[in-house]
């Protein structure tokens, strides 16, 4: 199983993605996740000729035997509360072309969430909204042959001051969305940490998703926050999780979204954090014989 990580772990020690690629390759990573999560107004992807940047990235990645297996589209606030709504939608559409230049197979696109959509409230209305939303992206998915990854989410309940379920917290809801979209360019990106925050066992989520699970955001937490730590630094049972992946015949990559391993460290320690994260992922994969 190919091992991957988000391309932000070493961005202070090695600024500029092009220079850091060699470092990920040196550590042993096979694949990378390019995140457009924070892209908005002023993004390079809104400038003429952004494709040249993408082509350069691809060229350097190829040279170092790295593959951008998955990408994350721009993060969006709840419907009606996103100040850059139009810009982020435009960037999301451009992300498909970016994927095609990089040879990326999966683009993760969060569902649109609503402030009145926690604890399963208004679920059918919100699912209808998301069917329209993903449906509007499907022409791009088909054109560039990229699969949209639906991701399981969580929200914050400001009244009870605790994390709570929202759109796609229930993996069955993602399966229902895929069934109703009826297009092979849609699959699930399972986020282990998001599931654990809600007190649910990620291994069980994997078993429900079965062959609709095509990609992962692997990270750990203590169940009291979305900490984005490497496996073993929280409360998730990774032996059980790996067994579940094996049992459902998971064929995707083992890609971490564990940026907190390095984010607050002194810049000079980022490489070592990325290396430790790799060692952990590699050991889990090898122990599971995957
Ligand atoms: Mn995630």
TrEMBL record:
Q: Which organism is it from?
A: Bianquea renquensis
Instruction: Output the SUPFAM superfamilies linked to this UniProt entry.
Output: Xylose isomerase-like
User: What keyword terms does UniProt attach to this protein?
Assistant: Isomerase
Q: Which molecular-function annotations from GO does this UniProt entry contain?
A: isomerase activity
Ranked from the top, the taxonomy reads: Bacteria, Bacillati, Bacillota, Clostridia, Eubacteriales
Q: Which domain of life is it from?
A: Bacteria
Q: Specify the Xylose isomerase-like TIM barrel domain's residue ranges.
A: 25-270
Q: What name does this protein carry?
A: Sugar phosphate isomerase/epimerase
